[in-house]
Hints:
The chain is of the alpha/beta class and 429 residues long. The chain has three domains: 8-118, no CATH class; 124-231, Rossmann fold (3-Layer(aba) Sandwich), CATH 3.40.50.720; 238-426, no CATH class. 50% of the residues lie in helices and 11% in strands. It has helices at residues 8-25, 31-51, 62-86, 94-118, 135-141, 168-175, 191-199, 238-258, 260-273, 305-308, 324-332, 339-345, 358-367, 384-389, 395-408, 411-426; strands at residues 124-128, 143-148, 161-163, 179-182, 205-208, 218-219, 229-231, 279-285, 291-297, 349-351, 380-382. 30% of the residues are buried.
Amino acid sequence: MVKHKVPLVLLLVDVIFINFIFYLLNLKFDIEKYLFFSIYITLVYIIVMYSSKMFIKSKLVNLDIISKTLKMSLICLVTIAACAYIDWTFRLPRYMMLSMCTFNGIGIYILHSIYYSRYIERENCLIVGRKPGIGKFIQKYYDILGFVDDKNKEPLYYKPCLGDLKSIRNIVQKYKIKNIIFSLSYKYRSKILDIILSTYDLDIAFKTIPSLNRYVISNSSNSSNAYLSDIIIRPANPIYLFIKRLFDIVLSLLLIIVLGPILIIIGIIIKFDSEGSVFYKQERLGLWGKKFNLLKFRTMINNAESKTGPVIITHKTKDPRITKVGAFLRRTHLDELLQLFNIFNGNMTFVGPRPEREVFSIELDNRLDNWNKRLYIKPGLTGLAQVLCMGSLEPESKIEKDLYYLKNMSLLFDLKIVILTILKILKGE
């Protein structure tokens, strides 16, 4: 996973320059107030520049630096002015704020232009596909090592074809690729997610041309240039993910302890009701397609799939393989309680898309463009699709609800889904 690294030399030069300008504009200023304002203004500038990605370790051209500098200067001016009106201790003369932001903007633009033109080399990239015209834009920002394509193996922009789509992981490792840029035609759009899932752990950045934005989770405003969009492969805030994981560990452990006697009783009833193991393990796809064993109480006859094979069950399916006790466990969702161990182990979370079997996931991915996007986040015990119709949704509706959750997930949204799930279960739905 690509991390946002800060060039420390550039950061230090910016800090010195910002304070130098502030000192020149405030030669008659009280020294104690100078230190107070200096620290505050420096922090504002550094935070805004960092969030605007002005400290990236990749090539930036003048147009990018100009747009980022203008945006940074405006945000800093508004932030400093707003704080002045909220708290009088932050009050500075207007001319001073305007002069400071103007000189800082000009100076930072010059410093960053020199730095990125002389001291930063263009990162390499691999182009996936051969959509016409995109190469001349990419060459301004990246060193193109080559491209991959399944059909046309002819050189592209004097760069060689390094292989086909299936060999991308090996190509990335062999040539130490830093960026994968998708330039595919519409009919190959589903390949994007497959490539991301197979290479996401190799510390590379994924980008796409704007015409493919609808098929990925992207943010063109965070892109390092105007012609490509960054593909977001970590859609959630790190703080949110940390709190969610902490919540998963504490609550799952507490529920395992409290519900322990109930789990034992359910196991005894299943054992007396039908032959076979009390527990049922089934391989499912988790975060980034990683396989794990999902735990459930057995609700079907022993070796249920020996004759039928894998079967997708919807609300329209009447399955004769389900035992009497199993029907009750499914109706009350008690068969899912063992997944508390999956949550505690980190394979699942309380709220997220329900995990799917690989055989069905491949089938549904071929049918539905966005199905594999569910693998961008950890699977859950319950999810938005489940609380809306408690598992009776068809795949087309499921992916619609799962994608809505993926783009809007938050702690409050998770809490709402958990509460709705409990209410649905209590109503027997």
